[in-house]
Design brief:
The complex is a heterodimer. By secondary structure, chain A is an alpha/beta fold. Helices cover about 30% and strands about 20% of the residues of chain A. Chain A has helices at about 5, 10-20, 35-40, 60-65, 65-80, 95-100, 115-130, 145-155, 245-250; strands at about 30, 50, 50-60, 85-90, 110, 135-140, 160-165, 185-190, 205-215, 220-225, 235. In chain A, strands 5-4-6-7-3-8-9-10-11 form a nine-stranded mixed sheet, with helices on both faces. A two-stranded antiparallel sheet of chain A has the order 1-2. By secondary structure, chain B is an alpha+beta fold. Chain B is about 30% helix and about 30% strand. In chain B, helix 5 (about 130-140) crosses helix 10. The relative contact order of chain B is 0.07. The chains are: A alpha/beta, B alpha+beta. Strand 5 of chain A pairs antiparallel with strand 12 of chain B.
């Protein structure tokens, strides 16, 4: 909550009234913070809402491969607690890479569905269960009806649902403009890494575009990709680099114990 | 035969009595190559092939062995299994193939498991018992799924022996000049019935599916079983669901008394037209939970064809395993990890058990061999992948050849062309040299790969390798391949 809203109790009451109308009055929204101040301050509640559906797509060529988008989602899933269900139609996830953003292979259960319909059915089943840390599904088409079902399933159980939008052809990627019921919508594009003083590839950097956020505003962030515990880091230009240790200190690796599922 | 078994390359034949003669009843592959065929008199076979090993056939032992095998198949594959004497099994896999990922993967799995036990088996899915029997024995392919409705055309070319007719009838038909099923099916029935009896028409009709043929399944020893007879046949989905809801608690009570949980649960529905429909659900762990089992069964109701109605429902725990009561973790010590085994079962019954897995590390430097799939509920392994090099998020199923230019021997490429797009390399890490696994394969004795992680000018990062070490021709083609994409 930012400083201004505390000054306006009228606004707060109005917000409460709206959220009661939307049907989640009796539940305190819990969130999974990114640990990056710039991003968390733009998201309502100060982080990625749990018990909600989020959409992530890759930008440019990554719309087909979803390499950066997949790594971004794995980083989010790594910071939840409990098992992670990962639903795909064609399997090309390289398991050691998940380990490198903190998502252990012991926690990740893959489902290889034969069609998009099966993916959505398994996705909904996983969200409805409620015992999973996160449910990640790679889907191409996501209609309003389907996403609404998924969002409702996530709301009732409090699970985090992430739909990685991944298409077979670049032309199909225009589908990402269609409205869905997801709470946030992200596009992850790769950026050139920072030049190192020695030959080699530096820490990967991404452009995170928050295209849609319910009850929030759109924003773009330049970040450094997930580290070994799934945390992003804000991009700091070389000139300001001396402040880096302070920015990295005191960030939680995982959501705190007992923060989940505070249903009344 | 255990230790007394002769070496596989020795020709072996089994001998037995046929009427008053002692003849060879069956031969192995080595003996078949020599030219020996079943039906040869024993004295003649011994005279022709002096190093032939002859043993007495044991039909009773074979039958018992087949029955044991049938029970094993009933545990693992499908609820309705019967012995198809003398050398086969017949399974009704309707309602069970979804657990194995479809009909073809199921057949492959069966043949593979039999091969693991030392048997060469053939497996065929067809519309009727007769057609499957014929194709499995006289068809060419070791594994085949016959598309529904094609029975007549597929069977037409097969020899008459495929029809399960007694040998006097086959010999009689041979004197008439009939040797294939097609011409026999086209002949008028009445003269055939007059001369050979009703068997020919019956077997033909059974093979073509014109009359039914019940499969009387083998019964597991003393299973937990509950059943219900209906005064009036039932057919509506809701009614079936209601009676499932009544049967499952009774079954769970029976399991509770024995301290067991169910791994495979079969529901057999006996229809008024004396056919049996069956559905099977599988669980990853032994389960005795009424709600969970009811739900798993009810999800399968849509696959049942009730026909004119169902007069009897039988619920059998085909595979039950001991299940101990477990102490739940006290919240004082640690927070309990949520149990997801019920979700696993629900998903497995929808997409099949093969489609549900975790990745586990394998000790291999070759990326495509460094992981394996293990079942979702497998015990957690302690090993992990080494972490000293970054690994790509996506690994291409097959490395794609790219055109690249690089300085020899160990510099990263300056540019490469992948899928028609030329990319200039801005920076790169490498090489990471990986050697072939010579202990697995002689061809891999010399090969090597040099992996590079490269970033192009637009910031996209790729995993490239050169097949070879850049100096020695025997280490590989020295061509470049793209193997993965980094996030």
């Amino acid at each position: 909550m930012t400083a201004e809203t505390h000054k306006k109790p009228g606004l707060e009451t109005l917000r409460a009234a709206i959220s009661r109308l939307e049907g989640h009055s009796d539940r305190r929204r819990t969130v999974l913070p990114f640990g990056v101040r710039e991003i968390d301050s733009r998201l309502p509640g100060g982080g990625l809402a749990l018990g909600a559906l989020h959409e992530v797509a890759g930008g440019g060529n990554d719309a087909l491969h979803s390499a950066a988008a997949g790594q971004f989602c794995a980083g989010i899933a790594a910071r939840t607690r409990g098992k992670v269900l990962w639903i795909v139609t064609r399997q090309d996830v390289f398991a050691p890479s998940l380990k490198q953003v903190g998502l252990s292979a012991r926690r990740t259960i893959f489902v290889e569905a034969s069609s998009d319909i099966d993916v959505l059915a398994c996705f909904e089943e996983g969200l409805r269960h409620g015992g999973l840390g996160a449910v990640v599904a790679e889907v191409a088409r996501l209609s309003m009806t389907a996403s609404r079902r998924l969002q409702l399933a996530a709301e009732t159980s409090g699970s985090l649902g992430i739909a990685i939008r991944r298409w077979r052809r670049q032309t199909d990627a225009a589908d990402f403009g269609q409205p869905t019921a997801s709470v946030t919508r992200w596009r992850v594009s790769v950026l050139p890494s920072l030049p190192l003083p020695v030959p080699g590839v530096g820490r990967p950097r991404w452009l995170l575009e928050l295209i849609r956020a319910r009850a929030g505003e759109c924003a773009d962030f330049e970040v450094e990709a997930c580290d070994a515990k799934g945390r992003l880091a804000p991009y700091i230009p070389v000139a300001d680099r001396f402040s880096l240790p302070a920015a990295l200190a005191d960030r939680p690796d995982q959501e705190a114990v007992g923060e989940r599922r505070t249903r009344a | 035969m255990g230790k007394d078994a002769p070496a596989p390359e020795t020709p072996l034949a089994l001998a037995g009595r046929e009427g008053r003669r002692r003849v060879v009843l069956s031969v192995d592959l080595a003996a078949r190559k020599l030219g020996l065929r079943p039906g040869t008199p024993v004295a003649k076979a011994q005279a022709l092939y002096p190093d032939l090993v002859l043993m007495d056939a044991d039909p009773e032992g074979d039958r018992l062995g087949l029955e044991k095998l049938a029970l094993w198949f009933q545990h693992r594959i499908a609820p309705i299994v019967a012995v198809d004497a003398p050398d086969g099994l017949v399974l009704d896999t309707t309602g069970a193939d979804h657990l194995h990922g479809g009909e073809l993967p199921m057949l492959k799995d069966m043949v593979h498991r039999m091969a693991g036990a030392g048997f060469r088996a053939k497996a065929v899915v067809a519309d009727t018992w007769g057609a499957a029997h014929a194709l499995a024995r006289y068809g060419r392919a070791p594994i085949a799924v016959m598309p529904p409705g094609n029975t007549a055309s597929v069977l037409a070319d097969l020899p008459l022996e495929a029809l399960r007719l007694p040998s006097p009838i086959i010999e009689g038909l041979a004197t008439l000049g009939v040797s294939r099923i097609g011409p026999l099916a086209a002949m008028p029935r009445a003269p055939l019935a007059l001369r050979f009896g009703p068997d020919i028409a019956r077997r033909l009709d059974q093979a073509f599916g014109r009359i039914g043929e019940a499969i009387v399944p083998v019964r597991p020893v003393n299973p937990v079983e509950v059943s219900r007879n209906f005064a009036e046949p039932i057919g509506a989905a809701e009614t079936i669901a209601r009676y499932i809801g009544k049967l499952v608690p009774l079954l769970c009570q029976g399991l509770d008394e024995r301290g067991q949980g169910v791994r495979r649960l079969d529901l057999r529905l006996h229809r008024v037209d004396s056919r049996t429909e069956a559905i099977r659900v599988a669980t990853a762990m032994p389960v005795r939970d009424v709600k969970r089992l009811t739900r798993l069964l009810c999800e399968k109701i849509e696959t049942i064809n009730p026909g004119f109605g169902i007069e009897r429902m039988v619920l059998i725990a085909s595979l039950a395993e001991p299940m101990d009561r477990r102490q739940t973790v006290s919240s004082l010590i640690a927070e309990e990890e949520a149990d997801v085994s019920d979700l696993i079962d629900t998903l497995a019954n929808r997409v099949g058990t093969q489609a549900l897995y975790r990745f586990a590390p394998v000790e291999s430097d070759l990326p495509e061999r460094s992981f394996c799939r293990v079942s979702a509920m497998a015990p957690e392994e302690t090993k992990d992948w080494p972490e000293h090099w970054p690994r790509p998020t996506r690994l291409l199923a097959r490395p794609e050849p790219v055109q690249a230019m690089a300085e020899l021997p160990d510099q990263p490429p300056l540019f490469f062309i992948w899928r028609g797009v030329r990319r200039k390399v801005k920076c790169a890490d490498g090489p990471e040299r990986v050697f072939g696994e010579w202990w697995k394969n002689d061809a891999e004795l010399t090969i090597a790969r040099d992996y590079f992680r490269v970033e192009d000018t637009s910031g996209e990062r790729f995993w490239l390798y050169r097949a070879g070490d850049g100096e020695h021709g025997e280490t590989g083609s020295q061509g470049w391949f793209l193997h993965g994409i980094f996030g």
